[in-house]
From TrEMBL:
Name listed for the protein in its UniProt record: Predicted Fe2+/Mn2+ transporter, VIT1/CCC1 family
Domain of life: Bacteria
Biological process, per Gene Ontology: intracellular manganese ion homeostasis
Any one of the GO CC terms: endomembrane system
Transmembrane segments: 138-163, 169-185, 206-227, 233-252, 264-285
Membrane topology, as annotated: Multi-pass membrane protein
Subcellular location: Endomembrane system
Signal peptide (residue range): none
Pfam families: VIT1
Organism: Sunxiuqinia elliptica
GO MF entry, a single one: manganese ion transmembrane transporter activity
Coiled coil start-end: none
Keywords: Membrane, Transmembrane, Transmembrane helix
Chief place where the protein resides: membrane
Length: 293
């Protein structure tokens, strides 16, 4: 049976869909070839074949080949390599959701479009959820390290800033407190996992916690090594803490499908309140003990 011609508007949307599908096909194929983990490689190859199949279905209606987006191929490939496959894939899928494709409109002229769209989303979500990555398996340890460092070290720096009013001394104290805190958190995380019977993951959990703690400490202490004014350094440290919270809240919201705004605001408010309290305590200590540096 001869197909009924499709409208120019629907055809244009199908071409956009084709470009998305063939672009993602190449991204998944390229990532699959680079992975050492056979399980994850097989999952990505399965998703890639789905993308190619849907590309060919849309091509039957448009009657033309469509080239992939070279920029998207480069961008999402390296995002996936640097920040994890699950994060890269889910970020890419969210971009596809916001593309100018109205499948409900397409379904008026191509009834199978709605079914194809549902099958694609359901199957890809199922496959993405069975990917295995250390970054996601130990996300709790990473969050623990970041949260603890941002609250403890920012509070310490705020208190010492007013008590000492010397950037070098505050930086030194922050570095010492940061290293001690990282070691303490790592050992606590290790013992916690051992007590729960997670012997295999205890070391990795401890490492992820400690490294996350150190990363946060670097961001918070760096301003005290760059600025002469302790109060300018504190302000920049606070802004750094907001930036760190923003980055990892966004990462978690994408990778684990969690609400971004709530987590971000909670952490910013918590860090700010602790910082203000510590700043006030620093002032009281300075006055009470008559500290002059």
């Amino acid at each position: 049976m001869e197909r009924k011609p499709i409208s120019p508007e629907v055809r244009q949307q199908l071409i956009i869909a084709q470009r998305n599908e063939i672009t993602e096909y190449h991204i998944y194929q390229r990532l699959a070839k680079k992975l050492k983990d056979k399980h994850n490689s097989q999952v990505l190859n399965a998703i890639a074949q789905d993308e190619l199949k849907h590309y060919n279905i849309w091509k039957k209606y448009t009657g033309r080949e469509v080239s992939p987006s070279r920029w998207d191929m480069f961008k999402f490939y390296w995002i996936s390599r640097l920040f994890g496959i699950t994060f890269g894939i889910k970020l890419m899928e969210k971009g596809e959701e916001s593309a100018r494709i109205n499948y409900a409109e397409i379904a008026h002229e191509i009834p199978e479009a709605a079914t194809i769209s549902k099958e694609e989303n359901d199957h890809e979500e199922e496959l993405i959820n069975i990917l295995k990555e250390d970054k996601l398996e130990y996300i709790g340890s990473i969050v623990l390290g970041l949260n603890d460092a941002l609250v403890e070290i920012l509070g310490t720096l705020a208190g010492l800033t007013f008590a000492l009013q010397n950037t070098k001394l505050v930086a030194l104290a922050g570095i010492i407190a940061g290293i001690a805190g990282a070691l303490s958190m790592s050992s606590s995380e290790y013992l916690s996992n051992k007590s729960e019977g997670n012997d295999a993951g205890a070391v990795k959990s401890a490492l992820f916690t400690g490294l996350a703690y150190i990363v946060a400490v670097v961001f918070l202490v760096a301003p005290y090594l760059l600025f002469a004014s302790p109060f300018t350094a504190l302000l920049v440290a606070v802004l750094d803490s907001v930036f760190v919270v923003f980055v990892y809240s966004y990462y978690i919201s994408i990778a684990n499908d969690q609400p971004f705004r709530k987590r971000f605001l909670e952490m910013v408010v918590l860090s700010t309140v602790v910082g203000l309290i510590s700043f006030g305590l620093g002032y009281l200590v300075r006055v009470a003990f008559g500290i002059e540096v």
